[in-house]
Amino acid sequence: MEAPKKPHAAKNLANDLLISVLTRLPPKSLCRFLCVSKSWHHLISDAYFQAQLPPSMAGLFYHFKDQDPSRCWRINKEYISTPSYHSGFIDTTLSFLPYTGNIQILDSCNGLLLCRLWGSPSSNVFICNPVAQSWTLIPNLKLPNFCLLCLAFDPQVSVHFTLVGLQLNKQSTCVELVKFSSQTHSWAKFPVSTECDIKFHRKRRGVYFNGILHLLAAWKYIVAIDLEGMVCRRIEMPVTSSLIRNKFLGNSGGSLHYAVKGKREMRVWMLKDCERGEWVLKHSVVLEVMFDITAFHPDMDIVFLRVQNILMSYHMNTCELKELHTLRQKTVHWPFVFSPFFGEDVLENKNGV
């Protein structure tokens, strides 16, 4: 009676051993092994396998402006690979996209990028995956209609992404939240109450994780929007001061982090209890250099800083400040942390397909 179960048990054991081996491989080898066979491709793309992979940040995208020979302003993007990660197998130039012109990245979330063509009609907005070299054009989108546009994607929950746009209603305390779902391929509008008159920072990106979109609101609040239940709540910032020169909101280690800069001092808080709005001061340091806070490392206690035209990493555990990259310009716009996604995505177009 037990004989039929043996092949199934042996198959599970073989898969467990294979998963144990594959999860120890560098990302470059893992990406190549997607093409070994259909069964390997299915295994590596499976949500369970993806959950076994150690989180890894591959690098950062950033933008800068310069002038072309005709003295017209143009936007350029560059990619910086972190020292511990070989990104050579990822098309970080986005050359696989069937668009000509300068591509501006608007947001980055768990391996997917929200992009548009700089200086093109606003309808040319798309989502792409540099690992799979795939993309999807977003229909019926006019950027000027939104004060904020954010990408929400969590492959551990769903293979589908959500695009979230905010439209402010000056006549009420409600925010018009518009969602595009890759599952339905359609837009839906929801009025979300913020409980009081809150002004959002234009061009400040949202921080999405655990199903919650966190937005930096003017002066002393963070607004957290549950994208599933459409519930909005305010979280008071741990500190408000007119002496703050630079502030940054981000996700690190699965917790919301908030960093502020005075003249040369940097303080970093972590949100310990979201329901109570309880923050803990995680780190405080006075640096000998002038700096700007640019990003959090999503997996390690590292803050990325810009010191003149040098990108540096500050390790909160060791207090080490390390030089990573010489930037093309002293003025850097929109740095985006990039953590590649190796699973099978639902983007409509594939390079060569």
What's the arrangement of strands in the largest beta sheet?
Answer: 3-4-5-6-24
Please count the beta strands (DSSP E, at least 2 residues each): 24
The Cα radius of gyration reads 22 Å
Number of helices: 4
The CATH first-level class of the largest domain comes to Mainly Beta
Order of helices and strands: HHHHEEEEEEEEEEEEEEEEEEEEEEEE
Kindly describe this structure.
- InterPro entries: At3g26010-like, Beta-prop_At3g26010-like, F-box-assoc_interact_dom, F-box-like_dom_sf, F-box_dom.
- This is F-box domain-containing protein.
- The protein is mainly beta.
- It has two domains: 45 residues, no CATH class; 296 residues, 6 Propeller (Neuraminidase), CATH 2.120.10.
- The strands form six sheets. A five-stranded antiparallel β-sheet has the order 3-4-5-6-24, with no helix packed on it. A four-stranded antiparallel β-sheet has the order 7-8-9-10, with no helix packed on it. It has a four-stranded antiparallel β-sheet with strand order 11-12-13-14, with no helix packed on it.
- The N terminus is likely disordered.
- The protein is globular, with a radius of gyration of 22 Å.
- The protein has four helices and 24 strands.
Notable traits:
four-stranded antiparallel sheet, 43% strand, mainly beta, 11% helix, Neuraminidase, F-box-like_dom_sf, five-stranded antiparallel sheet, 24 strands, 353 residues, F-box-assoc_interact_dom, 2 domains, disordered N terminus, F-box domain-containing protein
Task: Please sum up the structure shown.
With 353 residues, the protein is mainly beta. The chain has helices at 5-22, 27-33, 38-45, 47-52; strands at 59-67, 73-81, 103-109, 112-117, 125-129, 134-137, 148-152, 162-168, 174-181, 186-193, 207-209, 212-216, 221-226, 231-236, 246-252, 255-261, 265-273, 278-286, 292-296, 302-307, 310-315, 320-326, 333-338, 349-350. The protein is built from four helices and 24 strands.
